[in-house]
Structure formats: structure tokens, C-alpha cells
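Hi V.,

You were right to ask for the full record rather than a summary. Here it is.
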Amino acid sequence: MKLIQWFPGHMTKAMRMMESSVPLADGIIYVLDARCPAASFNKKLLSLTGNKPVLYVLNKGDLADGKADAFLKKFGNAVRINAVNSNSRKTILSAIEKLTADKREKATAKGYSKIFRFMVVGVPNTGKSTVINLLAGSKRTVTGDKAGVTRGKQWIRLDGFELLDTPGTMPPAFENQKLALHLAFVGSINDDILDLDDIALALLDELYKKYPVRLEERYGVTGGTPLEMLEQVCVKRGFLLRGGEYDYERGERAVIDDFRKGRLGAITLDTIEDLNG
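Predicted structure:
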């Protein structure tokens, strides 16, 4: 399989912008993908934040199963939410109030009201902008399902605090290719630079090892090599060309899309041990 590396030029600029913005922030909201919290945890981003308090937001929690909750305990200041569900707004606001309680009390004691500023960071496509829009109660930032939508620096003024939406940034190099694959599976790496043949086969292989019943229920997959499983997907979904040949491309895209849209059920790819990778 081709080595996965993705660090386009604008990310270097984004990292510098974030580093210069840290002194302006009272805290950091770190948005992770609940399906792969370890893979979407970019240590380079955290190194920029210094001693600022961090709230970890495991977004897309509806697409992850209970295994993701182990990360809440590990991170400490952490919540699991679904940013497209308005009920998650109270969860995040409550966590923000808890994170700023001491500073708010000190400000009140001195007779003034402090506007807290938070920098929102994360790898691409974890839903940073969607989280901000949720907190704002309206569409204040540009969102999309393609990695790398947010490019510029945007301070968003809300009731009692401000949020800085930042571009999604990857580590300059993926030391752990298993975690890189997980980011590719969830769409955090631009599909245009990936070999979707390799990605789909790797996804089938991992899902069969961890969630075999899901593949059998959805596609009738009963095992075999990743290619044989893909062929079973093609047969089940009717992805056949003239002469009965398999339409591998349609099968690959179906598996990737079904996983990303949650049609295979709630899935968590990472374990706590992966944080050390």
C-alpha cells in the first residue's frame, strides 16, 4: 500500500497563524472525531497551546459506539456530542462554563465581566465549523464534508465569549500509518490524494476483524481476503459489469460512503492504546 502523507502548503501557514493567536485565547476547544479520537489527536496542535486549558469535543458521537467513551475519561475535560443535533449545545456550553469558572469568579470579584476567547482546533473534517455554528445558533462559518474547507482566520462573537475558527491541520508526517488509514476512512484526508482501492480494501479488512456481523448484515460478507470480501459486496449490491465482471470502483465507493454515513452502524476504530502511537 502507498504510504499516506498529506500536509499541503496552506497548513504550514495555518500552524503559524494559530501559534500567533494562542496568546489571545483563554482556552482551546479541540474537536476530535469520536470514531477515531486517537488518529484525530494531532500532538503538534496541542504543542502550540502551551498551558492553556483544553476542552476536548468528541464530535460525530452518534457514529461511534461505546468504545469512544473511554477517551472521555482519558482526556478529562471532554464531552461527546453530535454537532448537528441542537441538544448538544447545552453539553458544550456547560463544559465551557466549568472550564472558565475560576477566571470568571475572579473577574466578577474584581467588578468586571470578562469575554472569554477560545481557539477551535482539530484535523480536517472533524466538524470544527459545525461546532461553532451549533454554539452560535446559526450558520456563522463555512462547513463541508470535504477535508480542508476552512482556510482563513475567523473570530466569531457569541454571547459571553468568542471563538476562533481555524483551518484543519495534519501533523507534518504520519508516524503511525494505521492511524493515518483511520483518518482516510473518516474523510479527514483529501480523497483526491488517496488510492481508494487500497483504502476500501483496508477498511473492509479492519471492519471484518472488529465488526464482522455488520459486514454480513449489510453486504452478506462471510470472510475471505479483502478483495474477496469486496467481490461479495459487489454481488450483494448488484455492482456487476457486462459479462459478470465485478464493478470494483462502485463497490469500493459504496463501502467507504456507507461507513462515513453511519450505514454500517456505530463504529469506533481507535483504542486508548493508539494514543501512544
